[in-house]
């Protein structure tokens, strides 16, 4: 068993333990392996170990991997910042986009999604900690923007994504995730749409995210190890 596969198994054990500890249904939390800057061979090894969903931040790197791994049944998730001139390729090649941070991007993805691929699953990224350095809509804008996205064709708004400010203790980690969960509930109440996704939690805080309802946790270094130095 490779080091990557061993780490993958340990992350699954953490997820399963958290599902048990916080009264989550078994299997309700999905693992997204963040494979940016990682080799195609590493992704193949994880696929052989049972991992099916991979997240990428950089478009050209991702497109090269998608082409090289087209023989595998991988669910590709775009999780990085989105420039307007990148939306067409993202709409054509990905199954999920977690990082829609403005209405303009959602409109472009909707217009450029090929009909034969079916609706593109998206999450609205929320700047839940109100950090100047982070992308995402302000929490008080999320309901109205969600309502407008829900009216767009070729997209399926699944829920919300956030990358909170780092915190060291468990209670502090939980707080922004709690706020995101409450925001999703408010959007659901005001739009009556069956939103089902909270994309939140990474290697260092996935337990806190699961405690607050995460359905996707995004793990990179916890699976692949430290990112290689350039």
Overview of this protein structure:
It contains nine helices and eight strands. With 230 residues, the protein is an alpha/beta fold. It has one domain: Alpha-Beta Barrel (TIM Barrel). An eight-stranded parallel sheet has the order 7-6-5-4-3-2-1-8. Helix 7 (170-191) links the parallel strand 6 and strand 7 (197-199). Helix 4 (87-93) crosses helix 5.
Topology at a glance:
Blueprint: H1 3-21, E1 30-34, H2 40-48, E2 53-56, H3 59-68, E3 75-78, H4 87-93, E4 96-100, H5 103-112, E5 120-125, H6 142-150, E6 155-161, H7 170-191, E7 197-199, H8 206-211, E8 216-219, H9 221-224
Parallel strand pairs: 1-2, 1-8, 2-3, 3-4, 4-5, 5-6, 6-7
Helix pairs in contact: 4-5, 6-7
Quick synopsis:
With 230 residues, the protein is of the alpha/beta class.
């Amino acid at each position: 068993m490779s080091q990557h596969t061993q780490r993958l198994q340990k992350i699954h054990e953490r997820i399963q333990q958290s599902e048990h500890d916080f009264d989550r249904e078994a299997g309700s939390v999905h693992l997204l392996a963040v494979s940016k800057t990682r080799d195609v061979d590493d992704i193949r090894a994880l696929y052989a170990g049972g991992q099916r969903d991979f997240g990428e931040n950089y478009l050209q790197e991702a497109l090269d991997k998608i082409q090289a791994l087209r023989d595998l049944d991988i669910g590709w998730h775009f999780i990085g910042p989105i420039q307007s001139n990148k939306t067409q390729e993202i709409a054509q090649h990905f199954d999920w986009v977690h990082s829609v941070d403005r209405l303009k991007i959602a409109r472009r993805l909707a217009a450029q999604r090929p009909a034969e691929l079916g609706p593109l699953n998206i999450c609205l990224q929320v700047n839940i900690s109100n950090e100047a350095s982070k992308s995402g809509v302000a929490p008080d804008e999320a309901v109205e923007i969600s309502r407008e996205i829900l009216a767009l064709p070729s997209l399926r708004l699944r829920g919300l994504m956030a990358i909170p400010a780092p915190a060291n203790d468990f209670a502090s980690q939980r707080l922004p995730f709690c706020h995101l969960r409450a925001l999703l509930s408010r959007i659901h109440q005001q739009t009556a749409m069956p939103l089902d996704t909270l994309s939140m939690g990474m290697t260092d805080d996935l337990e806190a995210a699961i405690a607050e309802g995460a359905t996707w946790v995004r793990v990179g270094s916890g699976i692949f190890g430290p990112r290689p130095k350039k």
